[in-house]
Design a protein that fits this description.
2 copies of one chain form a homodimer.
Chain A: H1 7-17, H2 20-24, H3 34-52, H4 56-61, E1 65-67, E2 70-72, H5 77-86, H6 105-118, H7 120-139, H8 142-154, E3 157-162, E4 178-181, E5 187-197, E6 206-214, E7 225-231, E8 233-235, E9 241-244, E10 247-252, E11 263-276, H9 282-318, H10 334-367, H11 370-402, H12 413-420, H13 430-438, H14 447-463, H15 468-489, H16 493-523, H17 528-540, H18 543-552, H19 563-567
Parallel strand pairs in A: 3-6
Antiparallel strand pairs in A: 1-2, 4-5, 5-11, 6-7, 7-11, 8-9, 10-11
Helix pairs in contact in A: 1-16, 3-6, 5-7, 6-7, 6-9, 6-10, 7-8, 7-9, 9-10, 9-11, 10-11, 10-16, 10-17, 11-12, 11-13, 11-16, 13-16, 14-15, 14-16, 15-16, 15-18, 16-17, 16-18
Chain lengths: 568, 568
């Protein structure tokens, strides 16, 4: 089943649902609407459908392997990467000063979703480079920017992020990698990093590693961490990749999925590095990058959800089964239709939330308005966790639609399920996202949350005449979410930790319903979007009640079992 | 993390929660309680923990392969199988007349859960033989019984089930495999069958295929199907496996998981077969076998859930992460504890439901009482679907607890997730189970359902003095389930199809809460079971509300999107 980029869906959401019009009304992004937007979506859609989609199975069937220290990539990936780079897609939102297109993040994320949906394992490569571009734009010296940004933006060079070490996952502050000043303004980096996506590639002219390490005078914990640029090949005086740096890929992980994306253990042995940002300021730089990367990972989940939905619908529309002599296909069976409707409704809800998140980022960037920045910050953990939860659940349902064939690898349904599973884990597990939401993101006393909830209620009010049942349901759920927010604000951190995931999921349900209702309003009623809105609001939104009950429990009963009793 | 069979848990549930005492009060099973029960559970637990658990990774790392027409099995599987067979576990519930132990199905399922949890891919082999034994006991001629049952019960020979064909999955009636009478009382079977688990094994002295096929005068559809015994090696006059029959393994499927279990495409070319049961009576024979197989598959899900829970708890108790200088492990983190508590609570709920189902089967078998038979029939689709849903969800949560390590195959967390995924599909997808529940199983006007709901309410009444909040919550949910049952009874089949899965899941939540409450009552309050009951009833049971809302929608809005619109 070939992937078909959902170009029309993006056009509709951007034009009518998620407020993209506000972005193109700013001076900075005045050119990014209308024909420009159409051209970007159409062209990226073509790339995804025609060039990248056909590579999806290659990555799984012919995983990247480490041979004599070099990562040999899957068949066709070099050409696919080249097509992404030559289309200018890596630098779509990068600063035009260094060759970027300077377009809104909303368009970048739309494009990225299509690339992710077509071939996630390859798409991860430019995504990491995009994160690196952003970090360098915000934190690097002008010299480093001038040297690295044009190469990264053109895709000639590739970027990675090196945070994790065996003993330091979520707890980044425990890292042991060392950096020592070399006297000439550079540093010697030594240590081992794990889970380095696309740590190397045989089609990379250069690989630029951003590495977190601790200087000799760095205090323990996150406040003593600095960020370094450590290129695989050290650029010579002409800016060409020169001498090999003292770093290597030790091994590649045997993962459950994403086999086309090499996940490396990297070793640095007094490798030459350049400081990015100020000394001991590494976490701030990483956070810049991580916030957008989190939205980006949410978008990965949504991309896979779209692809898995398309594949399941296509299978169900072809698979004959039924009464003797009947020529029915399983798409006519109510339970199969329920599964497909759920997949479609969840995918579109998650997409709308993520795009609204991107719009908030663009508005914050274009206007400097703190309210937009707070909105973006609030939505980021929701976009990441809900987008990737939806990715996993939709892929699981996709297998179910395929029946026995879903368990057989040839259909590709299993690959979606395996590939997407990591998205709820990396860039901060979904549990960490939820803790971020009930912790940092409510440190404003809930202001950003209450503002958003009020907007949801106002929109529901406005829709009431046209869609009384749906509007009531959305308004009521939003009001419950307001109560839950107040309840969470009064909890201690242990209780917040116990209810964080339920609170996040409840919030996502309210927002999903809100954007479905907005789509129905924009459609004018009675079309497919209205039908889907009704399905989501009347059949899926009621799950909010169960989540709300869980939130209200706080930490009650969480310690009822000792560790030994939990073990069984 | 080595698997540890939950022997104590079985003992507690059988002695205090699921009514096993009624079984041992019958004449037929008078010997199956007390010391006998303890010995069975202890001995099977030892086999699972010490012999089979260590084979789990072998099946994944060294899958079964087809070489020159022979299925080479994973290292150690031959010895593991021998240990299962020599322990007498295959014939634990088989008729003593042919060498079985004649013990209750409740004990068989308890033993099977431990074997499944230890190594699912190997466990599938004796499970299929058990299904075949049951089918032969009920439907075969005395001659066939005398020849095959002793060999199957001893494990010298193995059994398979051959239903599915490429065009005939759920719709078994569409099968094309032919049987022609040979004049000498035997038949010539020709056709291709797919998804044949353990279609062959290099350690099998003989493989006995039960094959559904159509006789020349068989009408189209299920009513023209007959069942045949088609052995790989035709027994000679001494009952030894003789001449090769005309059948072969064409290929093995490339599956997402269960790699240790060879899933064969089988081809029969005028293979010699013997009729089992009457001509055109194949479906009735298959149904006998399938009902218990469905419970057995639910038990597979629960076995994997137990194993995944143990592995996650062990990992969380060892994995250090936390504040600088802290030596905390992640099991102390509220969100991790929430995940582990959920895994434990769901696993035990599903186990109690499945064992109550087995008790009902034993009571029906021992007493011939129609009420027990109806109870068993009602619970079967719930045990199967909830047990396997829990298997998948718990395995997914297990990955999440492991964080990045969960996506790396070495931990084994990913294997649970991949292996268990097929259980929601085979032996009738969980959608089919739900349709069975809202269709056939409510054809009594809901009598069996209402009777069970009333028992749940009575138990809640009785528990109210001791556990007022929990009892209220259970009673209320049961009352809603009664309303839902009445609502479903008034729906047409399209609407029932649309709400079937939600109705089944809602029912499972009520029953899970019921058995947790019963465990708390049996414990006397304030112990770990009471804590777990509180967790389940107060934090998970509220999901019932969302499911109930979905059921009440009937088929409303299901056809809002055309097939093209669903495709995106």
């Amino acid at each position: 089943m070939p992937y078909k980029a959902p170009v029309e869906e993006f056009r509709f959401l951007l034009n009518h649902v998620v407020g993209y019009g506000q972005v193109t009304e700013t001076e900075r992004f005045a050119e990014a609407g209308g024909e420009m937007m159409d051209a970007i979506l159409t062209e990226a859609g073509r790339l995804a459908s025609e060039v990248l989609g056909p590579l999806q199975r290659n990555g799984d069937l012919h995983p990247a392997v480490l041979e004599n220290g070099v990562v040999r990539t899957s068949p066709g990936f070099a050409e696919g990467y080249k097509a992404i780079a030559e289309g200018g897609w890596i630098g779509i939102s990068a600063d035009p000063e260094h060759g970027g297109m300077g377009l809104p993040i909303t368009l970048m994320e739309s494009v990225n979703e299509m690339i992710n949906g077509a071939c996630l394992s390859l798409a991860l490569n430019p995504l990491l480079t995009q994160g690196q571009i952003e970090a360098l734009e915000h934190h690097a010296s002008d010299e480093l920017k001038a040297l690295y940004l044009p190469k990264l933006i053109s895709g000639e060079w590739q970027g990675t992020m090196n945070l994790t070490e065996p003993q330091a996952g979520t707890d980044v502050g425990a890292l042991r990698t060392k950096a020592e000043p070399d006297g000439d303004g550079t540093y010697r980096i030594s240590g081992q990093k794990i889970y380095i996506s696309w740590g190397d590639a045989d089609f990379a002219e250069n690989v630029c590693h951003l590495v977190l390490a601790r200087l000799p005078d760095g205090v323990p914990g996150t406040k003593g961490i600095s960020l370094f640029m450590v290129p695989r090949n050290i650029p010579d005086e002409n800016g060409k990749p020169g001498e090999r740096n003292s770093l290597r890929v030790v091994s590649l992980e045997h993962k459950m999925g994403l086999h086309g994306s090499p996940t490396a253990v990297m070793e640095y042995t007094e490798a030459k590095g350049w400081l990015v940002g100020r000394e001991h300021g590494g976490m701030a730089a990483m956070f810049t990058m991580m916030n957008n990367a989190r939205l980006g990972v949410g978008i990965q989940g949504i991309g896979v959800a779209e692809a898995a939905t398309q594949a399941a619908v296509a299978y169900a529309a072809e698979r004959k089964q039924g009464k003797v002599g009947g020529a029915g296909t399983i798409i006519e069976f109510p339970d199969v239709r329920r599964m497909l409707m759920t997949m479609r409704a969840e995918t579109q809800a998650a997409r709308a939330i993520a795009l609204a998140n991107a719009v908030a980022l663009d508005m914050a960037n274009a206007t400097g308005d703190a309210g937009w920045a707070a909105r973006a910050a609030l939505l980021t953990p929701i976009s990441k966790a809900y987008g990737t939860d939806v990715g996993c659940e939709v892929a699981a349902t996709g297998i179910q639609v395929h029946g026995g064939m879903g368990f057989i690898e040839e259909t590709g349904a299993a690959q979606f399920y395996r590939d997407v599973r990591v998205t709820t884990i990396y860039e901060g597990t979904n549990g960490i996202q939820a803790l971020d939401l009930v912790g940092r993101k409510l440190m404003d006393g809930g202001e950003a949350a209450f503002t958003l909830i009020s907007e949801v209620e106002e929109a529901a009010e406005a829709a009431r005449a046209q869609f009384p049942r749906l509007a009531d349901a959305v308004w009521n759920a939003a009001e419950v979410q307001r109560d839950l927010t107040e309840a969470v604000l009064e909890m201690d951190m242990d209780a917040r930790g116990a209810v964080a995931v339920a609170y996040l999921r409840a919030f996502a349900r309210v927002l999903g319903a809100h954007y479905h209702l907005a789509s129905a309003v924009a459609e004018g009623g009675n079309g497919p979007r209205t039908g889907l809105a009704r399905f989501y609001v009347m059949r899926l939104l009621p799950q909010h009640t169960g989540l709300a009950a869980e939130v209200r429990m706080g930490s009650e009963g969480m310690d009822a079992l000792s560790n030994e009793e939990l073990a069984g």
